[in-house]
Each structure stands twice: as structure tokens, then as C-alpha cells.
Design a protein that fits this description.
The protein is α+β, with helices and mostly antiparallel strands and about 650 residues long. Among the domains are: about 200 residues, no CATH class; about 90 residues, Maltose phosphorylase, domain 3, CATH 2.60.420; about 90 residues, no CATH class. Strands 17, 18, 19, 22, 23, 24 and 25 form a 7-stranded antiparallel beta sheet that branches.
């Protein structure tokens, strides 16, 4: 095995040199550092923004539900598998319960890293939710976990899931970087909250251990003899950790390693969309596993900003355009679970909850880097519609896969039974028959939205994403506390109360692109769709902002029509019959399926929307019933409030 590994590593080096030679022959090296770019915004420490209103309610409900109790719902995957400690993977381990029901076989060995993803993504969401709610019980649990995981760190700094005989010695699928990325993101959130030096030191030592074993520009962490890989490709977002460490320490080595990771990933033979050469081909549509593709977007952005190389700027621009084709009306990024070179389709294509979260995370990084308000619009659309619409509006469970037009949820896509093994289109607090990946990410998405609601721009404070929250930070060394009181996006009035203001401060508020009409209580100037207010603030001074949205008729990738109102996408609710499936050890947790009572797929017939009094965001209109051949009145509501629904409408 050692000889085979050395031979394959040598072969990878030859391929790499040939590829680099070809690049240099063309007179350009896309991975060369030209002029690194500064990020436009500076993110705040996690915990400086706390949710209130409906956002806090949702985070609290998650803690009371699947986020706070996933370890009790699937103890075999979390509590009983000490994969980072006493049960690290060795050559002797040939199988493991990874939470998916399937035939026995080699795939089990290939995906033995799965529990590290389940555990660490779950802990990441749990850690952040405990911080955001300041719940003493959950914070105590988190603190005990942090101490336990730090105790697993080896003397050389290694934090991970492999025994010494395996680590850093792969020529195939592995979870080395992925298990670290998921783990260290949560540890860094805890460090930002507590400022405990030991936590930051542990993360830095773990990252240094990676850089010592996979040398910069002298190794191949993304080499695989098999182009179809899971954990290895996921591992590219180890760059999340590198970027965060750079922001905390300003050590350039982390950015250099970010570029190296993307370079080695791009030069290997892998079936992945985000490789540099593939991004240059604008005719090549996205094909890969959706969650890989959408999370890799932020690594391409990170490599571009770390290098300032114009070639990577082109790759990033092309990547973003390709994602436009795979984005549904709700903002959902299709991939069920593969994108497959097809455009978004409200009825025939689904999107994975993991992909919803990862694309939101990637857009958040682009908002930080560029300051471009369009990414705020994209994040809000994705979070308020696709994410809320795949979450049960009343019970603690989510859809693993869901489509904009959801006519049934019985396991398959809208009763398409071609795939006999498809089980993902249903509600579950676990989804153990597929993989316990989407539920942990459903616990992460609200905290990741909340952490980017406010940012800094030099000595200015920026309301970058809108919603109910409290901000407590410092500007120029002085305390700044702002209460953002609102029911946004379900209501369109926002009150910013300056509870503590250090004299003259610039306040910037992102104006959503849809907000053509608005009223602001203070003098402002408009700068790139940001409302800019600069003055000497008084304690408890209130800034009042009101938007006046109008219903907007839009078209999706298939040219079907759908309606939006403010940041909300509207849907016609379909009456459904609920069936309880598998029950879990905890009372009140079930798998749920839904079938329509009397399905009618309406068609658009060019009638205006009429608001329903007393129900903000709800409207009545006429659509064409192809069965009765008549226009009939139907109701449209925010899609996040629906289970079965019709979002898009073909012309009659």
C-alpha cells in the first residue's frame, strides 16, 4: 500500500507539473498572487448580534426540537461514536453505522467519515444557537463539549478522525479536511464568543498540523484515483477556517494556503464543477453534487481575493452566472442530489436543505468581500423562502429535498415513482434513511443569517441583512448598542433605536432592490443602494424606516410566472392529508408525509392581486383551472407558511 501510495503521489506530481507547464505556456498562472484584495466589510464577532422577535423564536424552537435533541434522536451517530477521540478510524475499521439505510458494501468503508460531518455540523449549529439565546443549560453542554474535544488534540496539534497510520496518507476518498472544517468552524464561533485563548490556540495548532503534513505547493491533499469523491471534495471548504483565522490573526500564511488548496483541487481529476478550467468554459453547465458546487463558490471567491488574480475573477464571474441557471424562483439551488447539467424547474427539480445552507453561506462571504447589495437580496430571498419553505411551519422537522411546486410529499418528487429508492421528499427530524446531514444544516442556517445582519465598514456600522435583532459592538473603541425592532420580512416597518451611541457614527442600511418606495425619518444619502446616515447620535434616538412594497410578477428559469411581495415569494397552499410515519424515542417527533386532497394545477391568467385585510403578505386573485376551464379565486401566501403548494404558474 505504501509503495502504491508513493507511486500515485508521484504520478499526481507529474500531472500537476504538466498542467502548470500548460498554464505558464499560455503566459498566465491563475493561482499567482498579483495584488490581494481587501474585503469591503468586516464581519463582527459571533455573538455581537442577537436575534429577537420571530428570529429568536425560530432559534429557540430549534433548540427545543431537532437542533437541541438530535443526539437523543440518533445517539448511534453522535453520542455512541467517539470518532474524534477513542474511536478514530484505523485500517481495522471496515464498517460503521453512518445513518444511511443501504446495502452492505465497499461504500460503507468509503464514507466512514460521515459521522464527523453529522456530529460537527450539528455541534456548529448547536453552539451558535446556544450563544444566540444565551440559554444557561445549553451553554453548559457546549462548554463541556468544547473541553472534551480539546482534550482529544494530539501533542503535534492533530485534531481529527484518523489514527496515525492513516492520517495524511490517502490516494482516494477521505474526510481529513472535511472533518476538520466542520469541527473547527464551531470551535471558532465559541472562541469569538468567549475569547478563550486556549480555543484559538487549539485551532491554530490543528491548522498548522495540516500545513506541516501537506506542504504548501509540495503536496496533493485533493489527489484521488477515483474522480467521484465526497468527503475529499467537501474538504475544500477547509478554506472557511483559513479565512476566519486570517481575519482573527492577520497571518498571511492562511491566505496562501487557501490559494494552494484551490489550486491543487483544480488540477486533480475530479468530477467537480468548481475546478478552474471548468469554470472558464461558459458553455459547461453545472453537473455535480449540488452541495459541493454551492459551497465551493466561496472558496473560489476566497482564492480570488487572496491573490487578486484577474484569471480567478473571470472564473468567479462565470461561476455566479452558472448558478443563476440553477436557481429557482424561491432562491433554492437545484440539485436532487445532482445538478446534472439542467436548469431549475419548479416542478421537476428539487433542492437539498444542505445546498440551501451552503449557498447562503457562500453568498454571505461574497457580501463581506464585495459589499455588493445584490448578495443581501439573494440571501434574504433564499432564507425567507426556500429555507423557510422546506421547514415545517409548525413541527420540528424539515424536508431533505423539496421543490418550489410541492404537490405531494410522500418520499418521491411530486409522486414521480421512477426512482424506487427515493425517500427524501418528506418531513423528518432526522432523515436517517438517506443521511443525517440536512437536519444539522437546518440548525445552522438561522445563526449564519443572524451573524451577518450587521457588519463594519471602517468606522461605519452597516445593517447588511434586515430583521429583528439587537447589536452590541464597539466603534472606534466605544460601545455601540442598537435595537432593530421589526417584523420584517412579514412587516415592512423597521425601528433602529440607538441605545448607546458613541457620538458621531455613520449608519448604513441596505435598501433591498425591490424597495422602490420607502420613507426614512432622518436625512440620508443613497450610496450603491445603501441608505447612509451620518450625524451625532443621541442616546435612545430612533430611526424609522418603512418600505412600501408592491406585488411583483416575475418569471423563473422555465419562464413560468410567480408572484413576489417585498422579499417574500408567494404560493398557493394546497390542502393536504397528513400521515404520521416513523416515530422516534422522544415524544412528539415523527416523520410526516402529505398528499393533496384535490390537486388542481392552476395556470396564470393575468389578473391583479388583491390584499386580504388583516393578513399581511396574503392576497387573493384569479387563476385558470384547466379542469373546469374557468378562472377561479385562489389565495396566495408567503411560501414559508406552506407545506404543499404551487409557486409557479404556466400560461393558460
Amino acid at each position: 500500500m505504501k509503495q502504491s501510495f508513493l507511486f500515485q503521489n508521484l504520478l499526481a506530481a507529474v500531472v500537476l507539473l504538466i498542467s502548470l507547464g500548460d498554464v505558464h505556456a499560455q503566459g498566465k498562472d491563475p493561482f499567482r498572487v498579483v495584488k490581494p484584495l481587501n474585503e469591503h466589510f468586516q464581519p463582527l464577532r459571533f455573538g455581537e448580534i442577537r436575534p429577537t422577535g420571530w428570529l429568536k423564536k425560530q432559534v429557540t424552537e430549534n433548540l427545543d426540537g431537532f437542533t437541541g435533541r438530535l443526539d437523543s434522536l440518533v445517539p448511534a451517530l453522535i453520542t455512541n461514536d467517539d470518532i474524534y477521540g477513542k474511536q478514530r478510524l484505523t485500517r481495522k475499521v471496515k464498517s460503521k453505522d453512518v445513518g444511511a439505510v443501504s446495502d452492505q458494501g465497499d461504500w460503507q468503508v468509503q464514507f466512514l467519515w460521515w459521522n464527523s460531518e453529522t456530529q460537527s455540523n450539528w455541534w456548529d449549529g448547536y453552539i451558535r444557537s446556544a450563544i444566540l439565546t444565551e440559554d444557561a443549560h445549553h451553554l453548559t453542554r457546549v462548554k463541556n463539549y468544547i473541553n472534551k474535544i480539546l482534550a482529544t488534540q494530539d501533542a503535534d496539534g492533530y485534531l481529527g478522525i484518523y489514527d496515525k497510520e492513516l492520517r495524511y496518507k490517502f490516494d482516494n476518498e477521505n474526510g481529513e479536511l472535511w472533518s476538520k472544517a466542520t469541527l473547527l468552524r464551531g470551535l471558532l464561533a465559541w472562541y469569538e464568543y468567549t475569547k478563550e485563548p486556549k480555543v484559538l490556540r487549539a485551532v491554530q495548532r490543528a491548522v498548522q498540523n495540516v500545513m506541516d503534513n501537506w506542504k504548501l505547493n509540495a503536496s496533493h491533499p485533493f489527489y484521488s484515483i477515483n474522480p467521484y469523491v465526497g468527503g475529499l471534495s467537501h474538504g475544500l471548504v477547509f478554506t472557511d477556517v483559513l479565512e476566519n483565522l486570517y481575519r482573527l490573526t492577520k497571518q498571511r500564511a492562511y491566505l496562501d494556503y487557501t490559494i494552494f488548496c484551490y489550486k491543487d483541487f483544480s488540477l486533480q481529476v475530479l468530477n467537480e464543477d468548481a475546478q478552474y478550467q471548468k469554470l472558464l468554459d461558459t458553455s459547461l453547465l453545472l453537473k455535480g453534487h449540488g452541495v459541493h458546487t454551492y459551497e465551493h463558490l466561496r472558496t473560489v471567491a476566497a482564492a480570488y481575493y487572496a491573490s487578486g488574480n484577474p484569471a480567478l475573477q473571470v472564473a468567479l464571474k462565470n461561476f455566479l452566472q452558472k448558478i443563476v441557471y440553477t436557481t429557482s424562483g424561491s432562491g433554492g439551488p437545484v440539485g436532487d442530489e445532482w445538478i446534472g447539467g439542467r436548469k431549475a424547474d419548479a416542478t421537476k427539480r428539487g433542492y437539498e436543505y444542505c445546498s440551501i445552507h451552503e449557498l447562503l453561506h457562500s453568498y454571505g462571504e461574497l457580501l463581506i468581500k464585495t459589499g455588493d447589495d445584490q448578495y443581501g437580496d439573494k440571501i434574504e430571498k433564499l432564507f425567507f423562502n426556500a429555507a423557510q419553505g422546506a421547514r415545517h411551519p409548525e413541527k420540528s422537522c424539515i424536508n431533505y429535498l423539496k421543490s418550489d411546486n410541492a404537490y405531494s410529499l410522500t418520499g418521491s418528487l411530486n409522486n414521480d415513482t421512477a426512482d424506487k429508492k427515493q425517500t427524501r421528499y418528506k418531513y423528518s427530524p432526522v432523515h436517517q434513511d438517506a443521511a443525517v446531514c440536512c437536519v444539522p444544516n437546518a440548525g445552522r442556517i438561522a445563526p449564519y443569517y443572524i451573524q451577518q445582519m450587521w457588519m463594519k465598514e471602517g468606522d461605519a456600522i452597516v445593517a447588511s441583512l434586515l430583521g429583528p435583532c439587537n447589536l452590541s459592538t464597539t466603534i472606534n473603541g466605544k460601545k455601540l448598542v442598537i435595537e432593530e425592532e421589526t417584523g420584517y420580512p412579514f412587516q415592512n416597518k423597521i425601528r433602529f433605536k440607538m441605545l448607546s451611541a458613541p457620538g458621531t457614527v455613520t449608519l448604513k442600511i441596505r435598501k433591498p432592490a425591490w424597495a422602490k418606495k420607502f420613507k426614512l425619518s432622518h436625512a440620508y444619502r443613497l450610496e450603491n443602494d445603501y441608505l447612509v446616515l451620518r450625524q451625532q447620535w443621541k442616546a435612545n434616538e430612533v430611526i424609522e424606516l418603512e418600505f412600501f412594497p408592491e406585488p411583483r410578477l416575475e418569471q423563473d428559469q422555465q419562464k413560468a410566472f410567480y408572484w413576489s411581495y417585498g422579499p417574500l415569494v408567494l404560493a398557493h397552499p394546497v390542502e393536504a392529508i397528513e400521515t404520521k410515519g416513523k416515530a422516534f424515542p422522544l415524544p412528539g417527533f415523527y416523520e410526516l408525509t402529505y398528499e393533496p386532497v384535490n390537486l388542481v394545477v392552476y395556470k396564470y391568467s393575468n389578473h391583479p392581486l388583491n390584499p386580504i385585510e388583516g393578513k399581511p403578505g396574503s392576497f387573493q386573485t384569479l387563476f385558470f383551472n384547466p379542469i373546469t376551464q374557468q378562472d377561479e379565486p385562489i389565495t396566495l401566501r408567503p411560501m414559508g407558511e406552506t407545506i404543499l403548494r404551487q409557486v409557479s404558474f404556466d400560461s393558460k
